[in-house]
Amino acid sequence: MLQSSTLKFLKDLKKNNNRPWFEGHRKQYEEAKEDFLLMTEKLIAGIATFDPPIAQLKAKDCTFRINRDVRFSKDKSPYKNNIAGYFNRNGKKGTGAGYYLHIEPGKSFAAGGMWMPEPKELAQIRQEIDYSFDTWKKFTGNAAFKKTFTEGVKGDALVRPPKGYEDTNPAIEFIKLKSFIVSRPFTDAEVQDKAFVKQVANTFKTMKPLIDFLNHATE
Description:
4 strands, four-stranded antiparallel beta sheet, BirA Bifunctional Protein, domain 2
């Protein structure tokens, strides 16, 4: 769980996204950061029960800076309105599929998969879906998977089939995808509930067959 003060800080930051306000509330930021790091440590332990390589990670390996990179953005707000963590066996900068947790008042969610893989990896994933569509259908059609991820595997998609595939391919809906993501939302009340870490870990456990499929395809 996260403390209500952490969500309050993020709400206040959204209304006052500027350096003078942030510096005047640095103590609250440091407390919110520490709160999230402590929760992240517990989540790492939870994920490691079904994905052992994650156990080697430290919270700092998985969490992101709150500062935004504004160099190429029209939005010059200096800070993110969220705190987040990415859990990959090689840390937040690791390649391959992994688990993601996003905390933002009213917009928190857990997600996972691969976002915009490189052309080589994308081709490998498409080929694996084509060759192993029965395996893909088995875990995406699983009752727990469908209940948890009501929108299924999503991502930006091509209008037409990629080269080498036909519209008649039974897996074409997924072969057209350019990202392979599942997600589920969490309310502010759930984020502050004592069972939150367990809920997130269970969510990641449910998506693990997708993570394994994508990593197998690209490794």
